[in-house]
Amino acid sequence: MNKSRHKTLEAIFAQPISGTIRWREVETLLKALGATLSERAGSRVAVLLNDRVAVFHRPHPSPDMDKGAVRDLRRFLENAGVRP
Q1: Closest by CA position to 50, among listed 62, 39, 34, 61
Q2: Is the pTM above the cut of 0.85?
Q3: Helices (H), 1-84
Q4: Of all helices (H) and strands (E), which one includes residue 47?
Q5: Residue ranges of the domains in the chain?
Q6: Are 26 and 73 in contact (CB under 8 A)?
Q7: Looking at residue 61, what is its pLDDT?
Q8: Max alpha carbon distance in the chain (Å)?
Q9: In a 10 Å sphere around its CB, with 0-12 CB exposed, 13-18 middle and 19+ buried, how is residue 10 labelled?
Q10: How far apart are CA 45 and CA 57, in angstroms?
Q11: 3-79, which class in CATH?
Q12: Alpha carbons 70 and 64: distance in angstroms, whole number
């Protein structure tokens, strides 16, 4: 994993929860971790990683994820066995 992706992973697990993580960076990180992303209805994206599935809402018009979405992403990554 390159430095940029590692920085994104650390931001996801940082305390307090950040509200300035860009969705595009998260997509890149998830793909680097081996996740499969598939488009769903509307702005939803299904993520399959280590036999775990989660559906996230692609943020718009702002490119940044809100704190609740980051918390859910963190929980998903923990359940999939990913740690910073």
Answers
A1: 34
A2: yes
A3: 3-13, 23-32, 67-79
A4: strand 44-49
A5: 3-79
A6: yes
A7: 93
A8: 33
A9: exposed
A10: 6
A11: alpha beta
A12: 10
Confidence of residue 84 (pLDDT cuts 50, 70, 90): confident
Sequence-separated contacts (24+) of 14-21 with Cβ below 8 Å: 17/67, 17/70, 17/71, 17/74, 18/67, 18/70, 19/64, 19/65, 19/66, 19/67, 19/70, 20/64, 21/64, 21/65, 21/70
Could you report the per-residue pLDDT of 39-54, keeping only the tens digit for each?
999 999 999 999 999 9
Q: Which tokens go with 80?
A: 């999939």
Per the structure block, which two tokens stand in for 57?
């809402």
Q: Which two tokens stand for residue 48?
A: 């399959």
Q: Looking at this protein, which amino acid is placed at residue 70?
A: V
Q: Kindly provide the b/e burial profile for residues 45-54, where b requires at least 16 CB atoms within 10 angstroms of the residue's own CB.
A: bebebeeeeb
